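Predict the holo structure. Ligand: acetoacetyl-coenzyme A.
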Amino acid sequence: MEIRKVAVLGAGLMGHGIAQVAAQVPGYQVVVRDVEQRFIDNGEAMIRDSLERFVKKGVLTERQAKETLGRTKFTLDLNEAVRDADLIIEAITEDENLKVSLLKEASQKAPHHSIFASNTSSISITLLGTATNRPDKVCGMHFFNPPQLMKLVEIVRGAKTSDETVEIIKSVASRMGKETVIVKKDSPGFIVNRILVPALNEAIFLIHEGVASPEDVDKAMKLGLNWPMGPFTLLDYVGLDTTLAIIDVFLKEFQDSKYRPCPLLKQMVRGGLYGRKSGRGFYDWSKGPPEI
Ligand code: CAA
Ligand code: NAD
């Protein structure tokens, strides 16, 4: 099946980046849908900013950046986004109920042939597939933040995902310049987040217990393990709300107390300290990236 039109649902941290890497493929037309104009405006601004950086670095020519923007449309209307889409990539908030209800509605409006891919970090692909009227055409397509730079896409099979769906997503990821791994069994957090998210939660326990400061934990993991970003910079970058949602899925699905979210994480999310996207998390981002 040839993919010509890609709909991306959600224009947030991940949705804008996924839309951009899709629109950078010359044969794809992309439409991005969010629920409020301010989220669309923010997503579009992030795409423009990223394209500008690529032009400055010589990764893209000015013409390629302009053409990428020309292939990207934005809408608040779900019907307009999905009605003639060949591939629909869901990248909305990490919330099972929201995703189930959106996928149900979108699959009723989308053409019969279209494929659904979810960028969920942890939620069952089998469950999301069941919400649609075509579970064989649903799979996980898990990008990493920032999607414009990170090379990996995890392709996750749900219980009913067909081989053909996996092959199509593999080829789309490859056209986007990504490397793929196949997650054969639908399991919370797939590969990378199963390892990363408990590590990030453990880092928060270090602070909660007064063992070290966020700055020193970041310094330790950068210099001691060569992590490109320390865990607290990464937590702020990913979003504390998203991290808590993921660890909550682990706790619920594995029913193992080793996935208990750190109380400090819960408290910070309650306080709206989500990280970079809200201006403050473990660090203050209101005047740009923190100097660590
Ligand atoms: N678009 C285009 N260019 C960008 C960009 C973007 N969105 N973001 C950064 N850049 C460019 C910058 O222009 C800069 O270019 P030069 O090197 O030519 O100057 C370069 O990338 C580096 O940028 P920064 O100096 O701002 O930052 P950095 O050196 O720290 O690199 C990074 C950025 C690649 C993100 C790096 O810090 C990194 O790899 N961090 C870890 C990211 C990570 O672990 N992601 C996975 C998170 S987990 C996840 O995603 C899964 C989940 O479900 C939660
Ligand atoms: P975000 O909070 O930055 O953006 C979510 C966007 O979804 C918001 O703009 C919100 O308005 C929008 N949205 C909510 N309901 C919607 C609907 N019904 N239709 C369209 N848009 C809707 O979140 P994010 O970090 O971009 O995460 C999105 C998804 O990607 C989540 O499933 C998350 O787990 C996953 N993910 C996140 C990261 C990360 O590092 N943040 C990495 C990989 C995967």
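The chain has twelve helices and eight strands. The CA atoms of residues 16 and 45 lie 9 Å apart.
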